[in-house]
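W.,

You were right to be curious about this one. When I first looked at the sequence I had no strong expectations either way, so I just let the prediction run and decided to look at it fresh. Below is the sequence, 152 residues in total, followed by the output.
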Amino acid sequence: MPLHILTQIQAYIVNTKQLTNPICLTITGLSDSIAHLERIHSTPIPEAYACHMQQILLLYLAALPFQIVPSAGWMSIAITALAAYIMLGLRQIAQKIEDPFGHDAQDLPVDFYCDDVKECIEHISKREASGLKLEWSNPIALDNRVEKKQKR
């Protein structure tokens, strides 16, 4: 859907003949951002890496009581339990945020963002169709209007 919205933006700008260098750079930046996000979405953490990290974590947690028992005594059980809770919790959180583009409760609301951008594009299109000039190609004129409003 984001690529579809970007295509609509490009078509709108070309149709209204408001293609300027800053707009081209912005569209190129958006396109690059979409490519980066797609790469994040489609590149999982390698299974061997995840398995190795799990084994190292469990090995560390198994060896932890033997390392702290001389100094902590019976408290080493509670300290190890707390350390295990924290480290295994962090591992679980890392697995949940590995792919932030799904439809789980903790995922980013990408569909909401895309719908918001789509509504903005439709609003701009309606303003242009009603005869209001947006003056994107002349940002100096827009700045002058803002300065005049601020002086009032």
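Here's what jumped out at me. The two ends are 43 Å apart (CA to CA). And, maybe more interesting for your project: The mean pLDDT is 76.

Coffee later to discuss?

I.
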